[in-house]
Amino acid sequence: MTAASKETLGFKTEVKQLLHLMIHSLYSNKEIFLRELVSNASDACDKLRFQALTNNDLYESESDLKVDITFDKDAKTLTIADNGIGMTREDVVNHLGTIAKSGTAEFLSQLSGDQQKDSQLIGQFGVGFYSAFIVADKVIVETRRAGESADQGTRWESEGEGEFSLESIDKAGRGTIITLHLKEGEEEFADSFRLQNLIKKYSDHIAIPVFVQQDSN
Ligand code: ADP
Ligand code: MG
């Protein structure tokens, strides 16, 4: 891939507002980011399963759908990987940056600043992907749409401050890998026991298996 395939784009205004809010106001509910990312991974697997009903090739001979959660205590990273439908470069631009999802404006207008009330709103609206920035100061998304060739992968990267970069990558397996670089003080999420408890608490209803890495020590 050529260097020309790398570009930097700005977030849409509403997305910037949402990000600002995530980073500064939702702190007392910070753990909900995991629920949101696992829910997206699960949705991606559902989409693949549905589309594969009429196009079995999308499975690429890997039909066991799953979510893998891994971490690196030293690097202070947390990774959520799925082998669901994945995204094209265009999907990434649209869904993770330039098109605010319906409901965002309403969500923003209803926030009261009262963390108790706002946390209920979060449950109602679902804050989605951007909640990753509650606990991360850098988020990397590597994805490849099912059915596309390995060189059709895309890497999205952002520090949540107004812009994101996009780059073409090779990705052998279909689906999406989201890597969070945890903020100073958020190391608790690079811990097997903590992650397993959160999965039990928020994501027990997920139909596909969610695997959490064991602690290495
Ligand atoms: P919602 O899930 O309510 O649509 P999100 O902010 O959580 O909103 O996600 C925005 C969109 O980004 C999703 O609708 C989906 O198109 C895309 N997306 C996010 N995570 C993934 C993923 N793991 N795999 C495929 N697409 C994803
Ligand atoms: Mg979502």
- N-to-C CA distance: 39 Å
Domain unit count: 1
Determine the fraction of residues in helical runs and give it as a percent range.
25-40%
Residue-averaged pLDDT: 90
CATH homologous superfamily classification: Histidine kinase-like ATPase, C-terminal domain
Small molecules in complex = adenosine-5'-diphosphate, magnesium ion
- CATH architecture annotation name: 2-Layer Sandwich
Strand content: 15-25%
Q: Assign an overall shape.
A: globular
Oligomer: single chain
Q: Sketch the topology as an H/E string, one letter per element.
A: EHHEEHHHEEEEHE
Structural class: alpha+beta
- CATH class type: Alpha Beta
The number of E-state strands comes to 8
Characterize the biggest β-sheet: 8 strands, mixed
Give the strand order of the largest sheet, numbering strands 1, 2, ... along the chain. Answer: 1-6-5-4-7-3-2-8
The Cα radius of gyration reads 17 Å
